[in-house]
Automatic annotation (TrEMBL):
Its main location: membrane. The keyword Hydrolase applies. Keywords: Hydrolase, Membrane, Translocase, Transmembrane, Transmembrane helix. It is found in: Membrane. The lineage of its organism: Bacteria, Bacillati, Bacillota, Clostridia, Eubacteriales. InterPro entries: ATPase_P-typ_cyto_dom_N (IPR023299), ATPase_P-typ_P_site (IPR018303), ATPase_P-typ_TM_dom_sf (IPR023298), ATPase_P-typ_transduc_dom_A_sf (IPR008250), ATPase_P-type_domA (IPR059000), HAD-like_sf (IPR036412), HAD_sf (IPR023214), P_typ_ATPase (IPR001757). GO terms for molecular function: ATP binding; ATP hydrolysis activity. This is HAD family hydrolase. Residues 116-212 form the P-type ATPase A domain. GO terms for cellular component: membrane. It is a multi-pass membrane protein.
Length: 811
């Protein structure tokens, strides 16, 4: 985009202003004007690219703190002439290239999907209407906005009337009526109506662009529990390795009298052992692979963290229309009521047909009404009030009177009880019931104040999705509680939910009776089905559930779902719904098929559970190296391992098996917290490694065993403990896991025998072999009893933390 100064912008506005007064809104811009705007950079290009470029991906993977540490360590080893101990570099380079390649592949996949889901706009150019990507719009374009559309650039209404929700910008959920001359702010969305609008500010000049960077910064701070914990672990390790490394080098070189080369190699071995070099990468790659797997199932992931969050969800809030039922509606019939006088009035179907003809097809209800009531008399409406989700009615004024169509409770108000039995008879059969009546007041789109005389009832229904019962049964079996939140009559919603197989769907409440936050907080925990819910209440329901300690997912497809989607822990939208809902959500079901939700949950569980397993493998090495480094510094003992030996152990007990484990199927329900789960698994093995290796070093000095022999024996002891813990976390074993486990043992032994010089694996003396056998036998009971002890302590600590957390929630 060409850069423009403020002065340039002023000149542009003056030139365009003249054209506005002379332009025909039904014709729009011509191709020459569009090209001129593009050439001058006056297009609606986003303020920043939707995804990282390939150079940015390479840079973010290459220039990291730990890569700098590895580069310094490599330089020190070269300076010390210890080229053999550079064996960790191929592993680091392999990790680097894998990370870059996977991220580029994911970028390409998501970019293709994003094109399918990109915001589009209906623009008028040269007298024709085109649906084009929003970024191809230019200044002064005439755009047609309808219900559900998100306003993609600042605009001025030039024809028509719409109701707009600007809550994403102002925080106010009230709908605002916009007429010719009024401004439409980018980032808001159309609730009802239709209008022609001229784009006034596009691209970086638009209101939403000024908020984009701030919004992106806020979202970047929101991390999943798993990534947040890994960030903290990596951060702590990054701080500790420098002082420990310096202390270890100083102790060995200045106090123990070791050579410069030996001091460097020992220090490097300890530091490498403390760095979880592949853990963060493994987690990132696993998430990237999950994004690609979901993409193959037509699920677009806007935010990778939601994959883990959805797997932890224990409450799923769904709307009736578009989730339980198809996103279509049909009229099943109408009946007259007491207020209709067939002798003096036109046929009821004709009166409703005149009403439907006057309304815009801006929602599925009115489309169904127009299809069914399709024989108008030709009467023209004097004024029209589009449907308001706040007041639950639409209205039209004719010369002979004003008519309204809407939810019985909102239209009839105090007279509702007079017709309750008749209305709920049809609601209990699963129909959505609307009342059509004549109004003695002025239709202005605001709350009805005059009396409505009901003329008839209209019955509509949404067909239930075929896959809905099986999907909801799956969530019930997984312990996920379903909350059905709808704007329809609670009796109707309850009946539909029962047909869809939702547990406790007969436990319903009318949300219009929930007038306080306290009432909402109580109701969300007691009821399953909520009817007559306003958009602002949906948001309060989500917040109340989160306040109660629940992890909440919200599905939706309409503009009235956006507020709740933004506040939910995980938000899922149907691509067939509104642009606003799709853009506000973390996951978009491109096929609008709710049946794929179980596979998304399974993908999240696979990632989290498998990364927990892999993380415990990495932390065993980190805990051991940290403890042994401190032991060496405190007791003036030379660090017994070399970098090449650490690389050998890391490769076959951590790196290779962790990669395969991270991609294995895993449907287990996620329990506990990531950090506590990982530490409880890793601490016993890390402490066992430290105890047996530390004891072996001490006994080796007492029995005057050579340092080379001790170094080899320590490596083999670490291998034994590593394979035991690998076996334990791989359970239940299957053919692939047995192959991985056995293959890694064979690989380590093969490298030790045939590449012994490369990995500093030399033959041991008889005295060393005897010590090795003794401590090898000790490893099993040491690991077993330390596991029992740490699990008991861990359970007590976790239980205490949970009690404090629940007590805090109650307060």
């Amino acid at each position: 985009m060409k850069n423009r100064t403020s002065k340039d912008n002023t000149i542009v506005r003056k030139k365009v202003q003249t054209r506005r007064f002379n332009a025909d809104i039904r014709y729009g811009l011509n191709s020459d004007q569009v090209n001129e705007y593009f050439e001058n950079g006056w297009s609606n290009e986003p303020v920043e690219p939707p995804s990282k470029t390939v150079p940015e991906i390479i840079k973010s993977n290459l220039f990291t703190y730990f890569n700098l540490v590895f580069a310094v360590l490599a330089a020190l080893l070269i300076l010390a002439g210890s080229f053999r101990n550079l064996t960790f570099l191929p592993v680091i380079l392999a990790n680097l290239f894998i990370g870059i390649i996977q991220e580029i592949r994911a970028k390409n996949t998501l970019d293709k999907l994003s094109v399918l889901n990109a915001p589009k706009a209906l623009v008028v150019r040269e007298g024709r209407q085109f649906s084009i990507p929003a970024e191809e719009l230019v200044l002064d374009d005439i755009v047609i906005f309808k219900a559900g559309n998100q306003i993609c650039a600042d605009a001025i209404v030039v024809d028509g009337e719409v109701s707009v929700n600007e809550s994403l910008l102002t925080g106010e959920s009230d709908e605002i009526s916009k007429k010719p001359g009024d401004e439409l702010m980018s980032g808001s969305f159309i609730v009802s109506g239709e209008c022609y609008a001229r784009l006034d500010k596009v691209g970086e000049d638009s209101y939403i662009s000024k908020l984009t960077l701030e919004a992106k910064a806020m979202n970047s701070e929101e991390q999943s529990e798993m990534i947040r914990v890994l960030d903290k672990l990596v951060g702590v390790v990054g701080i500790l390795i420098i002082p420990i490394g310096l202390l270890l080098f100083g102790q060995q070189f200045f106090f123990s009298g070791a050579s410069f080369s030996k001091s460097i190699t020992s220090m490097v071995a300890a530091v490498i052992g403390m760095i979880p070099e592949g853990l963060y990468l493994l987690a990132s790659v696993a998430l990237v692979v999950s994004v690609m797997r979901l993409a193959s199932k037509k699920v677009l992931v806007h935010d990778m963290k939601c994959i883990e969050t959805l797997a932890r969800v224990n409450v799923l809030c769904v709307d009736k229309t578009g989730t339980i039922t198809e996103n279509t509606m049909e009229v099943n019939g109408e009946i007259p009521m007491d207020g209709y006088d067939s002798q003096s009035m036109a046929p009821l179907k004709q009166i409703i047909s005149d009403f439907a003809s006057a309304m815009s097809s801006d929602n599925i209800t009115m489309k169904a009404m127009k299809d069914y009531f399709n024989k108008p008399s030709g009467r023209k409406a004097v004024s029209v009030s589009p449907f308001s989700s706040q007041f639950k009615y639409s209205g039209a004024a004719f010369e002979d009177g004003s008519y309204v169509l809407g939810a019985p409770e909102f239209v009839l108000r105090e007279d509702y009880d007079n017709y309750r039995e008749q209305i709920e008879q049809y609601s209990s059969e699963g129909y959505r019931v609307l009342v059509f009546g004549i109004y003695d007041g002025v239709i202005d789109g605001k709350a009805l104040t005059g009396k409505v005389t009901p003329l008839g009832l209209v019955f509509l229904s949404n067909p239930i999705r075929k896959e809905a019962p099986e999907t909801f049964k799956y969530f019930e079996n997984q312990g996920v509680e379903i909350k059905v939140i709808s704007g329809d009559n609670p009796v109707t919603v309850s009946q539909v939910a029962l047909q869809a197989g939702i547990a406790n769907a007969d436990n319903y409440i009318d949300a219009s009776t929930l007038t306080t936050d306290e009432a909402i907080e109580d109701a969300v925990l007691r009821y399953t089905v909520f009817g007559r819910v306003t958009p602002d209440q949906k948001r309060k329901f989500v917040r109340a559930l989160k306040k109660a300690g629940r992890t909440v997912a919200m599905t939706g497809d309409g503009v009235n779902d956006v507020l709740a989607l933004k506040d939910a822990d995980c938000s899922v939208a149907m691509a067939s719904g509104s642009d606003a809902a799709a853009q506000a959500s973390q996951l978009v079901l491109l096929d609008s098929n709710f049946a794929c939700m179980p596979s998304v949950v399974m993908e999240g569980r696979r990632v989290v559970n498998n990364i927990e397993r892999s993380a415990s493998l990495f932390l065993v090495k980190n805990i051991f190296s940290f403890l042994l480094s401190l032991f060496s510094v405190c007791f003036m003992i030379n660090y017994p391992l070399e970098p090449s030996q650490i690389s050998l152990i890391s490769m076959f007990t951590i790196g290779v098996p962790a990669f395969f484990l991270a991609l294995q199927p895993n449907k287990n329900i996620i329990q506990g917290h990531f950090l506590s789960n990982v530490l409880i698994k890793a601490l016993p093995a890390g402490i066992t490694d430290f105890l047996v290796v530390g004891a072996l070093v001490v006994f080796g000095q007492v029995f005057e065993v050579g340092e080379t022999d001790i170094s080899t024996a320590c490596t083999m002891l670490l291998a034994i403990v590593g394979f035991v813990i690998l076996y334990n976390i791989s359970k239940p074993m299957n053919a692939l896991r047995w192959c991985v486990w056995g293959g890694c043992i064979v690989g380590l032994l093969g490298c030790s025998i045939y590449l012994g010089d490369l990995f500093a694996m030399r033959g041991m003396s008889t005295k060393c072999i005897m010590l090795f056998v003794v401590f090898a036998i000790i490893t099993e009971p040491a690991l077993r009893y330390s596991t029992i002890l740490i699990e008991k302590i861990g359970r007590k600590i976790v239980g205490w933390i949970e009690k404090r957390r629940k007590a805090k929630i109650i307060k």
